[in-house]
Specification:
The protein has about 280 residues and is α+β, with helices and mostly antiparallel strands. The chain folds into 2 domains: about 140 residues, Arc Repressor Mutant, subunit A (Orthogonal Bundle); about 100 residues, 2-Layer Sandwich (Beta-Lactamase), CATH 3.30.450. The strands form 2 sheets. Strands 6-5-9-8-7 form a 5-stranded antiparallel sheet. α1 packs parallel to α5, α2 packs parallel to α3 and α3 crosses α5. Bound molecules: zinc ion.
């Protein structure tokens, strides 16, 4: 089985079967994290994924030079997970959690012909989406995420610390946050200055928002001065921004944080306090 895990293919679930399967998988994930709590192997972040993997019969985790993010290899009654050694450590954590998701979904179906489907994922986007959601639940259990956010604060700089404690990517963190708090929207702006333009357009690379809000990927920031200032001065900023992004329309308090700069490409995180529209 070959997987390219991540949130890129996530979209709101629609089919009843898909929803039922996801509910089942998420409940299994909660039970698995509970087992680690009871065994005393998990009390504070980060979630010990290797311990969770052992609980679902993943006997070995190896890091290799492979093209995809990860693979789940059945060996007798147990499994080996192969991870892409060249990917970032947080990405590898997400991929391991995604592979645990495959085991959880297959396990509840039993080892029969139906179960075989759960180990063949390359073209099954429905299954991949479910495994990504389960992975998010495993690496960011809602109970501890809520505790950490309440302890450290809801501002963007506070959330940086919380995300680091869980050892997760911003994208995974943003999606988990959106399930808990629907008045805060996390958006990642990205620009690629490959055209050589002096004023590159910042576009939505991904967004994580609560119920009732939709922000299209690729929407442009309209070269807002606040985003440009954040990048040129390379520091966090707070201010007001007029947004016309999908269902998010109006002037909102925002916090900005530059998070990545590679050759001619910058990334800026933006936290929108959507409950405080002005
Ligand atoms: Zn997969």
């Amino acid at each position: 089985m070959r997987c390219s895990s991540g949130y890129a293919r996530m979209s709101p679930s629609s089919a009843p079967d898909e929803k039922a399967e996801l509910r089942r998988g998420l409940a299994e994930a909660d039970r698995l994290v509970d087992s680690a709590r009871s065994a005393g192997t998990y009390s504070s972040p980060p979630v010990p994924l290797e311990s969770l993997a052992a609980l679902v019969n993943i006997r070995k985790i190896v890091r290799l030079d492979i093209r995809e993010s990860g693979r789940l290899v059945p060996v007798g009654q147990s499994f080996v997970v192969e991870l892409n050694a060249s990917e970032h450590r947080y990405r590898q954590r997400f991929t391991l959690a995604h592979e645990i998701g495959h085991v959880l979904l297959s396990r509840s179906k039993g080892r029969n012909q139906v179960a075989e489907r759960y180990f063949r994922c390359s073209n099954d986007s429905q299954l991949e989406r479910a495994c990504d959601r389960i992975a998010g639940r495993l690496i960011l259990p809602p109970r501890e995420l809520r505790q950490e956010v309440e302890r450290h604060g809801h501002g963007l700089s506070d959330l940086v610390g919380v995300a680091r404690r869980f050892e997760v990517s911003w994208q995974a963190f943003g999606f988990a946050m959106s399930e808990l708090f629907d008045d805060r929207i996390l958006i990642c702006w990205r620009h690629s200055d490959l055209s050589g333009s002096k004023r590159p357009a910042y576009r939505v690379a991904w967004s994580a928002s609560g119920s009732g809000t939709f922000i299209p990927k690729g929407a442009a920031s309209g070269n807002d001065p606040l985003v440009e200032q954040c990048v040129s001065e390379w520091r966090s900023l707070k201010g007001e921004m007029t947004l016309r992004l999908g269902t998010l329309r109006g002037s909102y308090p925002v916090e900005l944080l530059p998070v990545g700069r590679a050759r001619r490409q910058s990334e800026v995180l933006m936290l929108v306090h959507s409950g405080r529209r002005n």
